[in-house]
Amino acid sequence: MLPLLMGMMGGGGGAMEMLQCCMVFAAICAVCKCFKSCSFRDCPCVKRFYRLSGQDAFDEFELMVLVHEALFEHKHKSIKTCVQITAGANTVTSDPSSNGVFQQPLHLLIEQGVEEICIELKEGNHVLADLHLNVVKHVLCVAKPENILSMKVKDGDHIHNPRIKLTMVVNTEQDEEKGLLAGAETGSSDIDILVKQQFRKARQEEIATRKVGDHGDLDVSDLDVLKHACTGPLEIFEGLGKSTLVYAGVSGPPHSRRWVLGFWKDQKSCEAKQHGMLEIDLLKVQSVQADPSRHHVFVINCFDEERVRRQITFRRVDRARDVWVQMLHLLVVKAREYGKKVTTVKQASSKKAPSSRASSRGAVSDGSDSARTPARAKTMRS
Length: 382
Known about the structure:
Low-confidence stretches: 1-12, 363-382
Strand order of the largest sheet: 13-12-11-10-16-15-14
Mean pLDDT: 80
Distance between the termini: 171 Å
């Protein structure tokens, strides 16, 4: 009986060892799962190990997401929506909008180990549509400015065919458009990023336009980029709260002697160089200011041809209000610098002209004296 009991205990001991091995394996899997959920990634050594081993494809970084607008079809008159973006444990939400236009930058920390970003279109706390993006495939590799992405409907009774227009920018120190912002203090990293993004888009569009027009010179100057970036749709206030949709365009050297900010009824009229609805001489602009009480509105303070001070109010359409303010401010600065250079050149040329005339007169007088001297000598001899 005892040997049988010992044998059973021996067999039981083997079973206990197997059970202990299973428990250890389960504990290791649980630890790995905790690592995967980033609960242990607060430790620098663990984060470094996962980067070196290839488990994590990137270090943590800050992502700026500019939410342009949400596009969808709905039966209701108006739906006040907001956009919520989640990456791991971090979440940011835009301000609500009744027309689907946001033009708001959101900053989101993408921690190491996060695999996807969830974008939700919400009405209050109710999710209308969502979109899941892989961090490596859709953000770090193929992020495009003003990219329109289709969303998955969550509530078909409210909206149909939901899409969202986003611009995602990973913060980097090197930027091609950094020179355009030289000497301009924006006071906000968000605005700097958005303005650079707008300049980058304007440069690409200017190059594409020259290719279509078969221009030989594809070297686009910073001044051309700035003029192209300051074109686009706006709403101008005419009084009593009435606003009209217009298209802004810029004309200046070398195509025009004057720096003018013009407004047309549409883009075709602007490109056809038709007579505009309104023209503002950029050298007579006093200031470009954001309206502190309305976050979509800005004001241009200027003088008209009769030197009467005017205040013209606009509302942004296709980009953030502060982007318009910053770019128009840079345009005014460049116009004034160009005007000063032209004045300096004119003054220098006017100073050279009298001296050259005096030297030519001196040469003529010297020749006449030399011609007269032999005649006088001949007369004296006679």
